[in-house]
Amino acid sequence: MDDRDRFMLLPAGADIEAAASERSIIVQTRRGTSIPNETFAEEPARMRTPEARRRSHGFVMELIAGRHGQIGCRDVRLRREASARYNCHGMTFANRRTNIVHDADVHQVLTDDRYAEIRPDEVKPGDIVVYYDERGGITHTGVVMFIRRGPAGGTIPFVLSKWARHGEYLHPVGVFVPYTTFRYFREGSE
Q1: Could you say which of 76, 87, 141, 160 would form a disulfide bridge with 92 (CB–CB 3.0 to 4.6 Å)?
Q2: CB distance 4 to 33 below 8 Å
Q3: pTM score of the predicted model
């Protein structure tokens, strides 16, 4: 099992039926295209205990440390507790209300809402970062929150993103697993 499989698994002991989609909401692009989505039931109360939350956060930090060492963990901050109600795309494009599951639907949002790719030196707070796997599929999204000067004189965007079934984390753009590349986008005007 690779890191991606481990990262996306339901919590140990999770009821598959409880994770099944209970409904979807209306999500549309600016052009009126409906975006398929799924709103999942929250985990049972036993999964939201302080101990379960510590395990979830510990898992994320262990995953980062395994890829980036402890230095990679230094600037990663939990900002919102775990929730199954929404995923990273739902956080980025649907105000934390749902899960947008398919990368084709994220492409549709980017196209219909007139997001334009921007160069790394043009990034500013509010821009979107899209992470890709080795095949070019969209695997993760987040929102740039601020820019920090890097140790070598460059800049490091810090991103807020929802990590699978885990919480929302504020992190340097390059400290994320298991995705391989990322690009920045800015929403176009009407």
Answers
A1: 141
A2: no
A3: 0.78
